[in-house]
Structure formats: structure tokens, C-alpha cells
């Protein structure tokens, strides 16, 4: 079982659809992250949750709505997206507050908005 | 401001050549961490190495080696005798503590390495 699992791996959705991305970590970490990776652009940090509390929201449009019900699960709810939102969405987790471990990443969800 | 610069967008080498990927960072903190990640075509970022700001000892792991120099704010990555399987995008990252006590990761734009057979 891999450390960080993301589902689905691929998603195609229309601009009026509502969908959710799921991330699950089996590493016992206390921090989880959503990143967006677009072609030819750096990794963009979207949201950070630490101990299930959102500690960072990097000016992400409200059409992206994160949810962290517990320390092992992280969701990204999507609605009324735009074609420019098409990207690879990566989830990561790390252990914080007692020092720092490296972040472990999932394989990502390749999202295409049509 | 914190920043990570990977000036090499893409590098192509022939198999068995050595290749060095450059990483330069900017930070005002005295305590920070540096990382290298590999992103193969499958998409996930694979952790390669972590270094804290107080440990400037260079490290070697098989064909991989890392050169950390605080004087030049650089953390370069060398692959010796490259192989086709090394083809991937490589990211350098910096992590600093936030006032909340949590950490923030800042990634470079990545260097795409192509190793040709």
C-alpha cells in the first residue's frame, strides 16, 4: 500500500459539473497539502492543513473547496471550473511540529476541464 | 523573500555521462531544509534527499551526490554515469518554519533531464 493515494488518477469534467478529488495518507503524518502543477509553471501550493486545521490558503478561487475530515484524508471539491484549471493536482503529507520530515506525494489527479 | 531557482529548464545527455543539476535558494532564516525530488512520467514526486541548514556535509548515494554550499546558497545534484531511467523532471525545494510552527515548502520550477541511449 503506497504512502499517499490519490483518486481518481484521471478526471474529465465539464464546466458546470461538481466533482471531488480524494487523497489518503497511510503514514501517520499530521499535515496535508494540495498543489497544482500546470504545464511550464512551478508547483503552486494551494492549501495546507495542519492537525486538520487549514493554515494556508494561497489566494485560491472559491471554485476550489478543500476539506480535511481527519488527519488521514483530504478532499478537494470542484465546481464550475474553467478550462485553465486543467492541470495535475498533487496531494502531499508530512510530519510537522516535532521537526520536519520530507513531504511525500501522491501520483496526482490529471484534471481536464472541457 | 524565499525563493528557489533552477536555471536549467531542460538538459539532455547521452547515457553514461555525468550531469549536474543546479539549485540556488534565497532565505532569511538560519534554520531551513533543502530537498530534491524526482518526478517520473507517472506523476508523483519521489523524495531523494533532505538536508538541514546546519549540515553542509556532502552526501553520496550510489550514483547520486549532492553538494550543499551555504556560502553560495546552492544545493546542486550530480548524477554519475547517467542512465535512461534517470530521465525525469527534478525539483529542488526549500522548507522554512512559519510563525504558526508549521512548515512551508517552496519548489523550484524543475529541470527536465533527458538521458539518451
Could you characterize the architecture of this molecule?
The complex is a heterodimer of chains A (114) and B (117). Helix content of chain A is 0%, strand content 56%. Chain A contains no helices and eleven strands. Chain A has strands at residues 4-7, 10-13, 18-25, 31-37, 44-50, 53-57, 64-70, 73-79, 87-94, 104-105, 109-113. In chain A, strands 2, 4, 5, 6, 9, 10 and 11 form a seven-stranded mixed beta sheet that branches. A four-stranded antiparallel beta sheet of chain A has the order 1-3-8-7, with no helix packed on it. In chain A, strand 4 and strand 5 form a beta hairpin. Chain A starts with a strand and ends with a strand. The mean pLDDT of chain B is 91. In chain B, the strands form three sheets. In chain B, strands 2, 5, 6, 10, 11 and 12 form a six-stranded mixed beta sheet that branches. In chain B, strands 3-9-8-7 form a four-stranded antiparallel beta sheet, with no helix packed on it. A two-stranded antiparallel ribbon of chain B has the order 1-4. In chain B, 0% of the residues lie in helices and 56% in strands. By secondary structure, chain B is mainly beta. The chains are: A mainly beta (114), B mainly beta (117). At the A-B interface, strand 5, strand 9 and strand 10 of A face strand 5, strand 6, strand 10 and strand 11 of B.
Report the strand count of chain B. 12
Count of DSSP helices of chain B? Answer: 0
Largest sheet of chain A: 7 strands, mixed
* Gap from first CA to last CA of chain A: 33 Å
Radius of gyration of chain B: 14 Å
User: What gross morphology of chain A would you assign?
Assistant: globular
* Helical proportion of chain B, percent range: under 10%
Number of helices of chain A: 0
Q: What is the alpha-carbon Rg of chain A in Å?
A: 13 Å
Give the termini distance of chain B in whole angstroms. 41 Å
> Given the helix and strand composition of chain B, which structural class is it?
mainly beta
Largest sheet of chain B, if any? 6 strands, mixed
How many beta strands in the DSSP annotation of chain A? Answer: 11
What's the order of the H and E elements of chain B? Answer: EEEEEEEEEEEE
Helix percentage of chain A: under 10%
* Quaternary organisation of the protein chains: heterodimer
Name the helix and strand elements of chain A from N-terminus to C-terminus, one letter apiece.
Answer: EEEEEEEEEEE
Mean of residue pLDDT values of chain A = 90
How much of the polypeptide of chain A forms β-strand, as a percent range? over 45%
